[in-house]
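Review session, final week

We close the course with one last complete record, chosen because it touches almost every idea we covered. It is GST N-terminal domain-containing protein, a protein from Aquilegia coerulea with 199 residues. Go through it on your own first, then we will talk.
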Amino acid sequence: MTLKVYADRMSQPSRAVIIFCKVNGIEFEEIRVDLSKREQLKPEFKAINPMAKVPAIIDGRFKLFESHAILTYLSCAFPGVADHWYPADLFKRAKINSVLDWHHSNLRHGAANFIRNTVLAPAFGLPLNPKAAAEAEQILTASLLKLESFWLKGNGKYLLGSFQPSIADISLVCEIMELEIQCMSISISLVNLFGAKSC
């Protein structure tokens, strides 16, 4: 049976799972759950993920949600995935898990809330919230500083000083690239409106 990936490419965690599958040659069927249409709240999707968030997967009869859990599962369940993504070495795995845990309560928390409250809220029928955006920006700035001063220290160019990427790298890079995409989007809008550039 083909792996089913329920995702919306607007979602950074969804993109991480899709990219991981493509990079590792994992065959999958992508099933779009349109967040802008609130399809994640439909009963048929909540039967797959009661938390009503993307991504989620179905592999045979096995259902799983939460992007980091999915990336871990895919690394272990599919033959041919290189060991560097989620090494068999217990100590290396623990270090990767520490980055993934830190990511959701720091970088993801700051980035997602910043983007939501500066750009995306209207797409979901919500008002922009400058106060929430300012708070998120502080978390985001602190997270980016911590990323540079701690998680990227070492000889290698990847997280934890590695010379090859892990599932933590793919997860965090999707988060950071979202900031660049949104910055470009804001710049284009400003150029169209005022003939000025930002970012």
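Two points worth writing down before the exam:
The mean pLDDT is 91.
The chain has two domains: 3-81, 85-182.
Good luck, everyone.
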